[in-house]
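Entry 14. Ran structure prediction on the chain below.
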Amino acid sequence: MSLLDKTKEQKLDEHGFQYKDWLNSDSENIIISPSGLRNFISNRGLWYNNTILKEKSFTGNESSTLGSLLHMYADNYYSGDLNKDNTLADWKVKQIASEYPNAIKEFERIYPFFKEVYLDNSTKPDYCEKYLEYDLTPNIKLAGSMDFIIQENGKWIIGDYKSSSKTFKDLEAYFLQLSVYSLLVELAMGIKIDLIRVVGIITTKETKIIIVEDKPNVDYVKQLLNDVVYSIQLVKDNPELTSLIFPYNYYDMFNTGLDKKRLGSKEPMFKELDKTTVIRNKLKQSVFGWLII
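Output, structure tokens:
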């Protein structure tokens, strides 16, 4: 452990630890994940296996490990738990990247840029890594942790960090997940979200930050969740309909562009940030002041 480290080494919480006891107490209990709902639309068979049968089709890779490291860095930055030299505790890095240690080198390249361009110039969120849950039915729960919730200029904004080695041309594909989180916040906290924000961390050779914002489409999410619950109950009562209700490659709206039409209320607000942009504008309060209407 580093001499500069504020925290002693401990076992980091695994994803979904908050509801594991509830999930394991009864095999019929189901967790609806906002991030997984995209598959309900694009590939219902895969969604059924992951959510209902609880089979893991994806356990991680170097890219997702890099994303986890950047998430932890942002959380520790705002909570004041970074080392004195603004590095993430070595034991946290090693734990998160235990299965994909090659991600550490890329993380060490990216996080200084992430800090200088985004974190150092953004308002501290009101909530970081906020876990919420809401019972849709006695055995079906909508639950998840959102990266940050922040109030800016009187508007509540919910956001997510997304890292990619490719340029973000369709960041709005993540609007579904954030629209679901917006409804969850409203149901569990009584806060109505005004804007959803995707913070894209582009990990190409020339690292950039891309911000995309729009209004959440909560009405669409309510309709979608009704379809989800109805489909689950229909198959439970009629198992022979499983392959009909949950086929593979059901409908991929995220490849057809219909996500923009159905989820975005208008053309999303888009801004690309790099060091030159930050220096030129001499940002004082919020990196996103010009994005908010």
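Residues 256-261, 278-293 have pLDDT under 50 and may be disordered. Will compare against last week's run tomorrow.
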